[in-house]
């Protein structure tokens, strides 16, 4: 497991997207230093939508920094940022149809920061044709970074990431859970899923910062990750980290997972873990009747 910060400096990128990898890592580190330095400061907090989410001045400052760094190096690329939304590509060389799109989550865990809980991350991904090719997750609290490149593996401070190696505990797996902002408090599917997991798992972590959960899974700290209508902005970076660490992601019905930056949130429900553990994890969320509602839709 990659649980210490002996060398927090991630390896430089290699291969086709080496330059993009290194720009993303540098931008995430710079944004992380900003967030860490102002964590205990006074900053503005505003409601974001009607579902209890928030946006802070820290989100906006970190996002502007990351977007600026990407635009300086890759002005022809499209950027989709958590707070600003779509930032169009610039110049005559801009690719048609947004073939290259950066996804920026400048502060994954804003609700944690607002209550003084130091559990948050910076996430950056580059997608080409809708598929992630570079993913970066940076934890400003520990100054650790985990990165992945399509076909190039996933890496952290202790080297290559390989996911959990231990067998599942007889008292149940240790899982993380995430759900999208659009999922209501009384959503019957989410309620039934969480109830089923709580009954049969050793622990179910709800971190309010899914990028941290993806990093934990890739490191091997947890056994699996279950998501229901997950957010598009941070999913590609986390999913790439997991798959390049040798883990498997399936839709809740066991089929191929096709969720990503595009499409409806109903495509972004998943189970992730080791290939040998996936059948058991799928059993936990298997379709059954619960108050008239099916767990898998």
From TrEMBL:
Superkingdom of the source? Bacteria
UniProt-recorded name of the protein: Inositol monophosphatase family protein
Q: Which organism is it from?
A: Streptomyces luteosporeus
């Amino acid at each position: 497991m990659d649980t210490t910060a002996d060398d927090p400096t991630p390896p430089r990128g290699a291969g086709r997207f080496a330059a993009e990898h290194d720009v993303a890592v540098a931008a995430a580190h710079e944004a992380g230093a900003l967030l860490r330095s102002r964590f205990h400061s006074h900053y503005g907090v505003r409601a974001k939508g009607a579902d209890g989410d928030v946006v802070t001045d820290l989100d906006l400052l970190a996002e502007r920094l990351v977007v600026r760094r990407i635009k300086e190096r890759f002005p022809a690329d499209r950027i989709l940022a958590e707070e600003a939304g779509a930032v169009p590509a610039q110049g005559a060389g801009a690719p048609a149809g947004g073939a290259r799109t950066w996804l920026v989550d400048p502060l994954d865990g804003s609700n944690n920061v607002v209550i003084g809980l130091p559990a948050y991350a910076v996430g950056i991904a580059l997608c080409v044709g809708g598929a992630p090719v570079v993913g970066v997750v940076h934890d400003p609290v520990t100054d650790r970074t985990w990165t992945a490149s399509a076909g190039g593996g996933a890496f952290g401070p202790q080297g290559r990431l390989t996911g959990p190696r231990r067998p599942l505990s007889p008292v149940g797996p240790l899982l993380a859970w995430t759900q999208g902002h659009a999922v209501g408090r009384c959503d019957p599917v989410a309620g039934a899923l969480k109830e089923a997991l709580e009954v049969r798992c050793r622990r179910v972590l709800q971190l309010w910062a899914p990028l941290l959960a993806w990093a934990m899974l890739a490191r091997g700290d947890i056994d699996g990750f279950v998501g229901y209508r997950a957010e598009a902005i941070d999913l590609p970076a986390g999913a790439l980290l997991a798959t390049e660490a040798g883990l498997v992601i399936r839709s809740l019905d066991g089929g191929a997972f096709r969720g990503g930056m595009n499409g409806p949130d109903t495509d972004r429900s998943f189970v992730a873990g080791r290939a040998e553990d996936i059948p058991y994890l799928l059993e936990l969320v298997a379709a059954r009747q619960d108050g008239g509602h099916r767990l898998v839709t």
